[in-house]
């Protein structure tokens, strides 16, 4: 209130003096100096002392527009004389530099026309000078950091954290930064945007990335004495876990101390996944679900045999269909069985024997041929298994006809019927040559029923014996019977008989 009264008195006195000076001057002299505005821009015709409420004068048209706090200041705060154009426009022309030039002469680099204390501008200034104010720094008083400065002189302060926080570093006990030989770069663990020292976030190097269950551990769980040169091997921290493990016993089993070989999970010890492929026995088929102790008895892992029989001897001896022991089967289980299941035993390759399985033989049960579990020395000729079929056949009767016991000469392994006996190729051409379509049934030539070893040529070829004797009187060994006819006429061709005869004689 006192300031306002003083300002009013001062303004009245100033205007009065101005009026007296104007009266004493000539009409062409302006007490305010050389201005482009005339008197009516500010004064009224009523009185020099009373200024217009709405003056035509606009300070923005001068070299110093009024902004911020300057808009509310009294004119005489800056204009100390009536000559208004004789006033400086630099901040220092009106404002004393309490920083004594340490921060330069440009007040506007820190201050604004609105107020001497502009917090946002302080933030911008700090950022421009390499130390942005973040986190708790945004609410601190300047003197909290600039403790040794006098008269608000802030030049020359270090931007290193330790310059202010060395005492915090030295007093920290959990963990002890000094004992752990931590460096003084606080930002390697503490975030500048944090509101407290707590919840530090140290980024472990790639040599030991913190994952899984390790994330929830307290630092002292691994760093009991020091942080520098802490071993990265699992066993250095988990030797007690290794020694205490019982299922299986890691010590007696002579397991390696590289935990990551089996324990691949970052969250738990359970569910170890040892890569058995790294040994000489890859786990395939049913072996993948078998408990380790089934093969590694009494926790013996080193030197475990890899032969099937070493684990499956009891299965081998107990098998009765067929009896492996009585049949003298080899003890290489994989010769017949797969690792997926014991049955079906589909791996045995019968083609490796002297009798490859083809056609209908593929589906036949082993015991059908290997009677009484006799596998070694089993005959490979058809008749050894199919004698009963041979003897029971009546159309035609194989036994009475004297058919050969080589079944494959007429039959295939796919089926008994249809038989593909080659009468033309093996005996006598009846489906080709001169005898084609000259017969109706087997009995036309094989006149003795059921006896195919007996045949007659003379029954069809009604030659007189006397005539044939005369015609063959120069043929040595000639006799008048059907077998002699076949010997000379094996193809049934009369004209080629002599050549066939001569061929036989030469041989």
How do you describe this structure in short?
The chain is mostly helical.
Write structural notes for this entry:
This protein has 15 helices and no strands. Mean pLDDT is 82; it is low at 1-10 and 18-27. It has 507 residues and is mostly helical. The protein is elongated and about 185 Å long. The longest helix has 23 residues, at 2-24. It folds into 4 domains: 2-89, no CATH class; 107-218, no CATH class; 236-349, no CATH class; 423-506, no CATH class.
Question: What is the topological layout?
Answer:
Elements: H1 2-24, H2 91-94, H3 119-128, H4 142-145, H5 162-171, H6 234-244, H7 292-295, H8 308-318, H9 366-369, H10 383-392, H11 398-401, H12 423-426, H13 465-471, H14 482-488, H15 497-506
Largest sheet: none
> Can you count the beta strands?
0
Structural class: mainly alpha
Please tell me how large the radius of gyration is.
61 Å
- Bin the helical content: 10-25%
Low-confidence stretches: 1-10, 18-27
Shape: elongated
Mean pLDDT: 82
Q: From the structure provided, what is the oligomeric state, counting identical versus distinct chains?
A: single chain
Strand content is under 5%
Q: Domain count, please report it.
A: 4
Number of helices: 15
Order of helices and strands: HHHHHHHHHHHHHHH
Distance, first to last CA = 158 Å
